[in-house]
Design brief:
It is globular and about 85 Å long. The N and C termini lie close together (about 10 Å). Helices cover about 80% and strands about 0% of the residues. It has a domain of about 220 residues: MetI-like fold. The protein is mainly α.
């Protein structure tokens, strides 16, 4: 197991180096208007001591863009290894500080969503497989397809129309009620923030459970039709033990693929949902930074997503190896 883990870790490190090179190349070949715009902005500030040309040279030097693609990449990579990603042009803070200020809002949103997704989708998928061709199976199949088909902005718009505009149970956007938030106790402030998370959580949960539900049902059906399941039933093993001790254990192995990828969504933020509901998470920050041409934060965010993706795949591989010894042997 240790040898397998070290091998997968080395593969991930090599892939990360190449992915970071692709990210830097994309930023390097972008039109220079963004960098020039930032240089002119810095030069036009009151008390500025440098011209736009000097600021442009400083900005290119800061990210190694004056040394050519290869040397510039190693310059940026060296700074990234030391945790130095420069200052965000839009937020006027270091990239790491912007990240630390916003990441936990996105983590809370996606952690609650992932828990609900697992609690809803997996039991429904198992139940649909057990009752194949029944009304509940057809209902689950149709419901999952509807969830997969509906875009995020449509679900968010419907929820805001019904619960915020018509019923007035929630605010349209924002994370707090500015009229009463400061006068509340600590627990009251927590409930105020939690109330503003209800609609975003429902939105992400609805669009997430469909694929996991269908994946669980499909794999569960395949396992339930296996010879060893028929043998266990023929021996008189209780149905509940057949389902949850024998069938689900083998269904869990393919599910690791989806659940391992969920690590990315936990920290990467829900870009569209956070923007629609005005949540100050890392997803909203990344969206606004990309629109504003904030190259430093965009590079930092893309690198962060790459690391998360590789870590998620690594965790999935290790879970594979723990659940199925054949993976380690092969």
């Amino acid at each position: 197991m240790l040898k397998y883990s070290i091998k997968r870790l080395l593969y991930s490190a090599i892939i990360l180096i190449f992915v970071m090179f692709i990210i830097y190349t994309l930023m390097y070949i972008m039109p220079g208007s963004y960098v020039e715009q930032k240089a002119y902005e810095l030069a036009s500030k009151p008390g500025a001591t440098k011209s736009a040309t000097e600021w442009l040279q400083d900005l290119k030097r800061q990210y190694g863009m004056d040394k050519g693609l290869i040397m510039g990449y190693f310059t940026w990579l060296g700074s990234a290894v030391k945790g130095e990603f420069g200052d965000s042009w839009k937020w006027q803070l270091s990239c790491t500080q912007v990240f630390s200020n916003r990441i936990w809002y996105s983590f809370a949103l996606n952690a609650v969503t992932m828990i609900l997704e697992i609690l809803i989708a997996i039991p429904l998928g198992i139940h649909a497989a057990r009752k194949q061709y029944s009304f509940s199976d057809y209902f689950t199949t149709v419901f999952s397809m509807v969830c997969i088909s509906m875009p995020t902005f449509f679900i968010a718009t419907v929820l805001k129309l019904v619960f915020a505009v018509k019923l007035k149970w929630f605010d349209l956007t924002g994370m707090i009620d500015p009229r009463i938030h400061d006068s509340l106790s600590d627990f009251g402030k927590f409930l105020d923030v939690a109330k503003h998370y209800v609609l975003p959580v429902i939105t992400i949960t609805v669009i997430s459970i469909g694929s996991l539900m269908r994946y669980t049902r499909t794999n569960m059906l395949e396992v339930l039709n296996s010879d060893y399941i028929r043998t266990a039933r023929a021996k008189g093993v209780p149905e509940r033990k057949v389902i949850y001790s024998h069938a689900f254990r083998n269904t869990l192995i393919p599910l690791i693929t989806i659940l391992g990828g969920s690590l990315v969504s936990l920290f990467s933020g829900a870009i569209i949902t956070e923007q629609l509901f005005g949540l100050t998470g890392i997803g909203q920050a990344s969206y606004q930074s990309m629109v504003a041409g904030d190259i430093p934060f965009t590079m930092f965010y893309l690198m962060f997503i790459s690391v998360l993706t590789l870590v998620g795949n690594l965790v999935a591989d290790l879970c594979y190896a723990a659940a199925d010894p054949r993976v380690r042997l092969s």
